[in-house]
Amino acid sequence: MNEGVRVFTAVLTGGPGGGKSDGIKYLLEELPKRGFAVLAGRELATDLFTRGFNIAPVMNDPVLNRECQRQMIKTKLAMQKQMRDFARLNPAPLITDFKVLLLDRGTLDDRVYMPPADFQKILDEESWTIESLGEEYDGVYHMTSAALGAEEAYEKARANNPARRESAEEAREVERRTRLAWAGHSQLRIIENIYGARVISFEKKLKILLDHTLTMIGMRGGLD
Predict the structure, then answer these.
(1) Domains plus CATH for the chain?
(2) Are 122 and 66 contacting, i.e. CB atoms less than 8 angstroms apart?
(3) Average pLDDT score over residue span 40-58
(4) What is residue 46's predicted lDDT score, i.e. its pLDDT?
(5) Beta carbons of 187 and 140 less than 8 angstroms apart
(6) First vs last Cα of the chain: how many Å apart?
(7) 96 falls in which pLDDT band (50, 70, 90)?
(8) Do residues 101 and 7 lie in contact, with contact meaning Cβ atoms separated by under 8 Å?
(9) Which residues, 6+ apart, have CB-to-CB distance to 96 below 8 Å?
(10) Buried b / exposed e along 44-54 (16+ C-beta atoms within 10 A)
């Protein structure tokens, strides 16, 4: 199915309140202006939780949680394959042989929610490696939680969003574990809240994300 069409697959990850969802929306608006056909996937965990899956008791049971994370990874791998096929079919405004797929979190994010030994057990039983899972993604963009460097913005967003349950301290811990989960990926780009000892605006953060994406598309896609 249009196997000659290249699909640049990028995953957006990061700690709570980092701007991941807004980043995907921004790229969906900006990349087509530059001629690219862009397709974005939804976050699997959010879809499950908002459609009746009760995660709390599962995460409190180590055996159930390990099986849950295994199924999450398997589902993501299957969905990513299907999304790439759809991306190849996606009509492009200008560049027809190179498409972009944006993913809301990836398989290595599941490392955050289980002990390292449990994750290794899944890898061994499924004949996966960290490297093989990471190879699914041409680019990894980590949107740093606002709780790390832009605390005032984080607390304001938290006050306006009942679904944002993590305290700033809890958000920083998830941020730390998420960075560790993706550490070592050759195309990891961490987009901070502070540059040159100054807190940047969220608009600037989005522009940095776009710059990284355009640069990486050129690197990975061989575009001039």
Answers:
(1) 6-219 (3.40.50.300)
(2) yes
(3) 90
(4) 87
(5) yes
(6) 26
(7) confident
(8) yes
(9) 5
(10) bbeebeeeeee
Least confident interval from 17-26, 48-57, 83-92, 103-112? 48-57
Please count the other Cβ atoms lying within 10 Å of the Cβ belonging to residue 23: 24
What residues have CB less than 8 Å from 148, skipping those under 6 apart? 15, 171, 172, 175, 193
Least confident of 25-34, 55-64, 90-99, 193-202: 90-99
Report the half-sphere exposure of 74 (CA within 13 A, side-chain side): 11
Residue written as token pair 């605390």:
151
Range list of H helices, the chain:
20-33, 44-49, 55-59, 62-89, 116-126, 130-134, 151-160, 168-182, 202-221
Confidence band of 180 (pLDDT split at 50, 70, 90): very high
Q: Which has the closest alpha carbon to 142: 108, 165, 170, 167?
A: 108
Instruction: Tell me which residue has tokens 């957006």.
Output: 12
Distance of alpha carbon 147 from alpha carbon 193, whole angstroms:
9
> Tokens 């900006």 map to which residue?
30
pLDDT interval class at 222 (50, 70, 90):
very low
Find out whether 13 and 182 touch, Cβ atoms under 8 Å.
yes
Burial category of 18 from C-beta neighbours within 10 Å (exposed 0-12, middle 13-18, buried 19 and up)? buried
Question: For position 139, what pLDDT does the model report?
Answer: 96
